[in-house]
């Protein structure tokens, strides 16, 4: 079995991590004007140093800053793109769990100017992460995929005076992302992840119906998204690994969409120009492994078999059996293991403890070592 010294690693994780109470308190104090932005950043720095040590202690070869400086996994990035502003209306997303339903509400976005990249987004954050990881640990940056700028609002979010032709919006958006990719690579980033809910959501007939109702071409939307991600990566710098994580919603241990990867699988796995796919596979809601037959040689699949939505620890033998099942469709050497999603896609976090989070990461490392060997 091939030892992996480049990402994604045999034992890996998606990115977001539970915020410690002191950090949450500091964010509230800053919002209420009790501490300055500089004081908040110092507290964030300390929290990130600690969570990097936790990832190292778990045995991971990659580390993120836990997205500790963000409120949400995607909007903190999107609102920093030129030409995009917060809209007065609200985005309301229905989430579900075993106990019932809850609603996530955030400001919508409005594309009111040409989309551009004024500066490399999260540059300062990534530079700090680089400075605190140990030798042998790869710092990883996570950002929302280009499709997330479109999925929440669709054509209706575009000012027709700015973009009478939607194709020009896509050209500008991909160019902005290409500049972001080049910018983070220039900082020394070797591991970048595009986080995406659209590809997984589009497998759900109910989600496609919602898109059709607002006037979008739900049956072919994934093809447009693949095209634009590929355009953003057309000149990807040498030495930069780009993966994508596909999620069906992750808010306070709840989810928004269901369905296997069948609807998008053939085009997505065979055409998307990323180096690896982080896939949710923690329960029956994600479907079976058969869609993995479309994954071409050389592309890595990171199986998200360990749930972040509850604290109970998975059985190691069960994980190994599921890895064996996936290996019927894609070679074992192309597989890795991770949690199914982040632990805290929004600042609120999922319903488990930080000790349970650390135990799940350690379980992933231990299981991967037994399946693939001691390294990578």
From TrEMBL:
Keyword match Transferase: yes
Domain of life: Bacteria
Gene3D superfamilies: 3.20.20.210
UniProt keyword annotation of Transferase present: yes
Gene Ontology molecular function terms on file: 5-methyltetrahydropteroyltriglutamate-homocysteine S-methyltransferase activity; zinc ion binding
Domain Cobalamin-independent methionine synthase MetE C-terminal/archaeal: 14-367
Database matches in CDD domains: CIMS_C_terminal_like (cd03311)
Coiled-coil segments on the chain, per record: none
GO biological process, one term: methylation
Entry keywords, A to Z: Methyltransferase, Transferase
Signal peptide: none
Entry-linked Pfam families: Meth_synt_2 (PF01717)
The protein's name: 5-methyltetrahydropteroyltriglutamate--homocysteine S-methyltransferase
Annotated organism of origin: Kibdelosporangium aridum
Classification of source organism: Bacteria, Bacillati, Actinomycetota, Actinomycetes, Pseudonocardiales
């Amino acid at each position: 079995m091939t030892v992996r010294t480049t990402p994604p690693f045999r034992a890996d994780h998606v990115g977001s991590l539970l915020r410690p109470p002191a950090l949450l308190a500091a964010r509230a104090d800053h919002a209420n004007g009790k501490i300055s932005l500089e004081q908040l950043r110092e507290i964030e720095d300390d929290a990130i140093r600690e969570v990097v040590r936790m990832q190292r202690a778990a045995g991971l070869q990659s580390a993120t800053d836990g997205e500790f400086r963000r409120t949400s996994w995607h909007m903190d990035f999107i609102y920093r793109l030129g030409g995009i502003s917060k809209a007065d209306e609200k985005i309301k997303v229905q989430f579900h769990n075993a106990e019932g339903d809850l609603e996530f509400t955030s400001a919508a976005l409005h594309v009111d100017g040409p989309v551009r990249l004024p500066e490399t987004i999260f540059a300062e954050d990534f530079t700090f992460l680089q400075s605190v990881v140990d030798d042998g640990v790869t710092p990883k940056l996570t950002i929302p995929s280009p499709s997330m700028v479109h999925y929440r609002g669709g054509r209706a979010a575009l000012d027709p005076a700015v973009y009478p032709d939607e194709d020009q919006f896509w050209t500008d958006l991909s160019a902005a992302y290409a500049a972001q990719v080049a910018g983070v690579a220039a900082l020394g980033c070797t591991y970048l992840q595009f986080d995406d809910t659209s590809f997984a959501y589009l497998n759900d007939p109910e989600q496609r119906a919602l898109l059709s109702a607002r006037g979008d071409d739900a049956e072919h939307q994934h093809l447009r998204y693949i095209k634009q991600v590929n355009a953003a990566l057309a000149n990807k710098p040498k030495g930069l690994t780009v993966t994508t994580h596909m999620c069906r919603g992750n808010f306070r241990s709840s989810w928004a969409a269901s369905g296997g990867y069948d609807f998008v699988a053939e085009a997505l796995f065979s055409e998307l120009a990323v180096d690896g796919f982080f896939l949710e596979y923690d329960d029956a809601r994600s479907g079976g492994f058969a869609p993995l037959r479309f994954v071409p040689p050389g592309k890595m699949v990171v199986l998200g078999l360990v749930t972040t939505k509850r604290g109970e620890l998975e059985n190691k033998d069960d994980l190994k059996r599921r890895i064996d099942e996936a290996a019927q469709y894609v070679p074992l050497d192309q597989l890795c293991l991770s949690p199914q999603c982040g632990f805290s896609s929004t600042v609120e976090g999922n319903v488990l403890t930080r000790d349970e989070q650390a135990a799940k990461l350690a379980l992933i490392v231990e299981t991967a070592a037994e399946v693939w060997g001691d390294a990578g």
